[in-house]
């Protein structure tokens, strides 16, 4: 067994509370000494990751919804979008995407709680953002994706610019969520039968795109990456055979980015407590200063399951790592959030 230790915890993003203040208060109370960052829980229209972007994009002149019948999900219509007949993507002006407005509002709450001593002084405010690839591949008609990608990427970059212009750099951490990347790398197709990607070499194309987003983040702001195999009804879109693709992609992104990652988060399926799954992580090539978090905490088997997966991981890893869930848990059953926090606390040491 290696001498690696379980140090610290990470919250991926979405948390099953009703508002940002409750999320931050409970996270600080339950996990304060374990966390270097606290998110706002992705509350409101962000409850199901990027799906609210369909309504945002659909409000733009020159953009139409696919299909005549809304597809309702709570307050959202999740129909994808397409360019209207005769419209060029470059001529489309997108409305505000909602990420900056939400971050600024939640920052005010975070700042007030920190001033009141509820949140520890060294804790940063975490803002989770999707990659442009994730939104375009998920919500834009396949024929329009290539042309639409730079339009959306510019709009999201403007949201990021507003966030970093408003929130002090030494108080802020940006997380890029990469999920559709793994649907592409695993060779999956959409329910329509279309391939998600619109480019050739998927490994180079996906890693270089993510590296570009990482390098947009100013150096005084922390930046991390959440690698994801999806979370629909608490199920992955495909179960990874092992951590090989996660490792290869993380290495490619780290090599392509000009700045170092502050942290890297990787999912661990609930069924995997064997060293075969973790084995490829021996080849992980990110700086020693990059915090590594393994998403091995699951609500279904709590401390016992997390302990088994930690034991397997420590057989392989020669570096310390922290714990997390494999994805956000904003859509987990009601009443499971605090028990999940308790599991994190039981298996990790404070920083």
What's the structural domain tally?
1
Stated plainly, the CATH topology is called: TIM Barrel
- Global geometry: globular
Average pLDDT figure: 94
CATH architecture: Alpha-Beta Barrel
Largest sheet: 8 strands, parallel
Provide a short characterization of the protein structure.
The protein has 351 residues and is an alpha/beta fold. The chain has helices spanning 20-31, 53-58, 99-115, 132-139, 145-166, 180-185, 202-216, 244-256, 275-278, 302-316, 337-347, and strands spanning 6-9, 37-38, 63-65, 72-73, 76-77, 81-83, 124-130, 172-178, 222-227, 263-267, 291-297, 321-325. It has 11 helices and 12 strands.
Description:
The protein contains eleven helices and twelve strands. It is an alpha/beta fold. It has a single domain, classed as TIM Barrel. An eight-stranded parallel β-sheet has the order 1-12-11-10-9-8-7-2. α10 links the parallel β11 and β12.
SSE blueprint:
Layout: E1 6-9, H1 20-31, E2 37-38, H2 53-58, E3 63-65, E4 72-73, E5 76-77, E6 81-83, H3 99-115, E7 124-130, H4 132-139, H5 145-166, E8 172-178, H6 180-185, H7 202-216, E9 222-227, H8 244-256, E10 263-267, H9 275-278, E11 291-297, H10 302-316, E12 321-325, H11 337-347
Parallel strand pairs: 1-12, 2-7, 7-8, 8-9, 9-10, 10-11, 11-12
Antiparallel strand pairs: 3-6, 4-5
